[in-house]
Amino acid sequence: MNVPFSSNRPTTNDLEAFWMPFTSNRQFKKAPRFFVAADRMHYVTDDGRRVMDGTSGLWCVNAGHRRPKIAEAIRRQLDELDFAGTFQMGHPKAFECASKLVNIAPAGFDHVFFTNSGSESVDTALKIALAYHRAKGNAAKVRLIGRERGYHGVNLGGTSVGGIGANRKMFGALVAGVDHLRHTHDLARNAFSRGEPEHGTELADDLERLAVLHDPSSIAAVIVEPVACSTGVLVPPKGYLKRLAAICAKHDILLIFDEVITAFGRLGAPFAAHYFSISPDIITTAKGITNGAVPMGAVFVKRHIHDALMTGPEKAIELAQGCTYSGHPVACATCIATLDTYREEGLLTRAAELAPYWEEAVHSLQGLPHVIDIRNIGLIGAIEFEPTPGEPGKRAYERYLEAFKSGLLVRATGDIIALAPPLIIEKSEIDELIGVMTKVLKSAN
Ligand SMILES: Cc1ncc(COP(=O)(O)O)c(C=O)c1O
Predict the structure, then answer these.
(1) Which of 121, 126, 151 to mutate for ligand 1's pocket (most ligand atoms within 8 Å of CB)?
(2) Which of 115, 161, 175, 176 could form a disulfide with 120 if both were Cys (CB 3.0 to 4.6 A apart)?
(3) Taking Cα atoms as reference points, which of 338, 348, 287, 286 lies closest to residue 70?
């Protein structure tokens, strides 16, 4: 691999200033791990080791690392126009980028609102849902429904609709008027399912329970990840999402698909909405939108929602929402080059070709010590371990460290290891990845 990198590790004192996100800072800084370069399927550590990227960075580097076309687009954009805002002003790349995005989006999604991250996309989507109902004269529709074990980023709205206890407990009462559906994880009935599990369609009826409790006239929107990835890859039971969509439609509740991970090919279709043949009202994205190279997010909105807000005097700002960097020129140029790369290499559907091979490979880990479940969908996999008594999370974390030492980056969350390699992975590399996991799981306690 021809990658320029410097092997200068910062001194211990240098590690202090950076308060690392979602990290056990004190533990990490005693035994840090550094990547200093990357190329396609691999990272390079500061001590010169190649580590296969089994998680597409943080679920974002779908086309693999350091793709030349994307890097070139960034360089060219910086030479041409480094920044121009999009408040009452425009630049061509933002419009070109939005048009290209709606071209690959599911039918009916013909408007895009730009943000800088998944978290901003989520809070923007929640605000659009509230504003929509108000514009339609349903100002009492203010409640937001998330789901237990859901992850919707770190802003206050996303934290509130999110359903991971550890992410919520430090932050007080959070946003008022939020409730949660039950999660869909059911090890007793669904362990070792391949793809969508058989049992649990009826869990969607939990929305009917909340509709009775709060009255549908007070509920604005339901937000779910089509596949709940950050919480350890919870694949929706067969028919669950369809039933949820039907209940939303019945009660005039907007359905928001949080596709920050699933958009841009992860399941083998451009969006999870395509994959599950479901038409939500709003879709949130980020991550793969720029192949992870530059921060960007986008909220896809159906025409009727957009149009409901295009009222009042023409000089009025229709939606009081936006970020300094919404539609940043460099992000837009990166996104356009990313979409070109996905198209040229067939990456938005490649996971569908690889999925059967991937499924077999991941499920070959069944029977290894302490493995109590294996899940898969598209090019995503998860291995769940029986927790060590009194030490939740220990087993997955130890195996994550061991995999890293053995040349593979995986993601540990609770007692689950998640896998989501770049969509360019070859079958021989899937074998290699599973080979490392097999060795790690066999040798661990
Ligand atoms: C489904 C989902 N929504 C939102 C987010 C937040 O995205 P970001 O970290 O870019 O703010 C994530 C991040 O993993 C996610 O998986």
Answers:
(1) 151
(2) 115
(3) 338
Q: Which amino acid is at 147?
A: R
Q: DSSP E strands: which ranges in 89-198?
A: 109-115, 143-147, 178-181
Contact residues of ligand 1, CB 6 A cut-off:
117-119, 122, 151-153, 225, 229-230, 258, 260-261, 286
Contacts of residue 215, defined as CB under 8 A and 6 or more positions apart, other chains included, come to none
Q: Work out the end-to-end distance of the chain between its first and last CA atoms, rounded to an integer number of angstroms.
A: 35
For residue 72, is it left (φ>0), alpha (ψ between -120 and 50) or beta?
alpha
Instruction: Give the residue carrying structure tokens 């919870």.
Output: 234
Q: How far, in Å, is the centroid of ligand 1 from the Cα of 127?
A: 17
Greatest CA span in the chain, whole angstroms? 68
Task: List pLDDT tens digits, range 150-175.
Answer: 999 999 999 999 999 999 999 999 99
Q: Which atom of ligand 1 is nearest to the CA of 155?
A: 11
* 35/52 Cα distance (integer angstroms): 11
Measured from the CA of 259, which atom of ligand 1 is nearest? 1
Enter the DSSP assignment of 11.
P
CA of 273 to the centre of ligand 1 (A): 17
- The model scores a pTM over 0.90: yes
Closest protein CA for atom 7 of ligand 1: 118
Element holding 176 (H helix, E strand):
none
